[in-house]
From TrEMBL:
InterPro entries noted in UniProt: BamB, PQQ_b-propeller_rpt, PQQ_rpt_dom, Quinoprotein_ADH-like_sf, WD40/YVTN_repeat-like_dom_sf
SMART domains in the record: PQQ (SM00564)
Keyword Signal attributed: yes
Gene Ontology terms: biological process: Gram-negative-bacterium-type cell outer membrane assembly; protein insertion into membrane
Protein name per its UniProtKB record: Outer membrane protein assembly factor BamB
Its biological purpose: Part of the outer membrane protein assembly complex, which is involved in assembly and insertion of beta-barrel proteins into the outer membrane.
UniProt membrane topology term: Lipid-anchor
The UniProt record lists the keyword Lipoprotein: yes
Length: 382
């Protein structure tokens, strides 16, 4: 990871850690290629100031026929996912930093001031709001009965989804030096899983808040704080009908874990601060230097690695239309072949950059830019 980005996303009590310059290489220049596919814009919608001035990764969320988005300056909108037609839009006196989560009845957002807010899905009215300990940087999640939220301070808390009544809280010790971000909790049946800044993946009973298992994804190594920095920040990937979860760790591994037992099924040394995608029996991973790799879902090795987008601060990958889509710091959206990693298409979404994870539903790819532009694309052959 380039030093400029590392310093932007670190949280540290002392600032001296970013005074050295071990790697200040510039992003790889974009190269020409023969495009075999293209991104066709279907619709777009603009909302507030998008990610705002802090290093947020507020992602869109798709559920049923809806897509929900939020902006750092307190705006939230629910749209028709096929047409982009607005169902409702509201503005709140909230500094939104984590969102959006959805269940059948509610939207959930988290704030920089340490609040979990539930909105009525039908009209955007505030259903309830509660205080949590620390900034919320990942999207809160709900199974319809229990809403869970993870904070930057190392807590995961469960609340009644209907009322906001506090049910339980798990607290982890957070290292002094971490990446700026948290994982997004993943709920699979009665288990909620989440990554921590100490390099661990935790599986808990969502009803009681009791820990079922812990698994180490990244182990601190080295003599300096930056060298020993580990984190599990990327979104977790559910596979095999929820039986397996794939986690990525910064200065750690990409690992497949059995959801029922926490047993490590396989692991590959890969440093990544974003989540993974899956298609065609492969796991697609973006490493911290901007390399994109296809790893056999059985853990039996890499099929290909593409480094042409090195140091371009790529987003979490998204699988769609036979390709792997990634965005970059200059706002370009790229499509790589799932088969061999070759470049297939490119378009520029927004000169302010792309950072948030994208969403996929059917044949549509949803990209939310740093300045608040949500664009739906189809992949077409040229």
């Amino acid at each position: 990871m380039r030093l400029s980005r590392l310093c932007a996303v670190l949280a540290i009590a002392a600032t001296a850690a970013c005074s050295s310059t071990p790697d200040a290489r510039e992003p790889a220049e974009l190269t020409d290629f023969d495009a075999s596919k293209r991104f066709k814009e279907v619709w777009d919608y603009s909302l507030g100031d998008g990610q705002g001035g802090a290093y947020q990764r507020i992602a869109p969320a798709v559920d049923g026929e809806d897509i929900a988005i939020a902006s750092a300056d307190g705006k939230v909108a629910l749209l028709d996912k096929k047409t982009g037609k607005r169902r409702w839009k509201e503005s709140y006196d909230l500094a939104i930093s984590g969102g959006v989560g959805l269940d059948d009845q509610r939207l959930f957002i988290g704030t920089a001031d340490g609040e979990l807010v539930a909105l009525n899905r039908s009209n955007g009215d505030i259903a309830w709001r509660v205080t949590v300990k620390g900034e919320v940087l990942g999207a809160p999640q709900s199974n319809g009965r229990i809403a869970v939220v993870q904070t930057y301070s190392g807590q995961l808390s469960g609340f009644e989804a209907d009322t906001g009544k506090h049910l339980w809280t798990y607290t982890a010790q957070v290292p002094r030096l971490t990446l700026r971000g948290t994982s997004t909790p993943l709920i699979v049946r009665d288990t909620v899983m989440f990554g921590l800044a100490n390099g661990r993946l935790i599986g808990m009973d969502i009803e009681s808040g009791s820990v079922r298992w812990e698994q180490r994804i990244a182990v601190p190594q080295g003599s300096t704080e930056i060298e020993r920095l580990v984190d599990v920040d990327g979104r977790l990937l559910s596979l095999e009908g929820g039986a397996v979860v794939v986690a990525t760790g910064y200065q750690g591994q990409v690992a497949a874990v059995d959801v029922a037992t926490g047993r490590m099924l396989w692991a590959k040394d890969t440093s990544s601060y974003v989540g993974a995608a899956s298609a065609l029996g492969y796991i697609y991973v973006v490493d911290a230097e901007g390399g994109v790799s296809a790893i056999d879902a059985s853990g039996q090795g890499a099929s290909w690695t593409q480094t042409v987008l090195a140091r371009r601060e790529l987003t979490e990958p998204a699988a769609i239309g036979g390709g792997i889509a990634v965005g970059d710091l200059e706002g370009y959206l790229h499509l790589l072949s799932q088969v061999d990693g070759s470049l297939q298409a490119r378009t520029r979404v927004d000169s302010d950059g792309l950072r948030a994870p994208m969403a996929v539903s059917g044949k549509l790819l949803y990209v939310y830019s740093n300045d608040g532009e949500l664009v739906a694309y189809k992949i077409q052959d040229r």
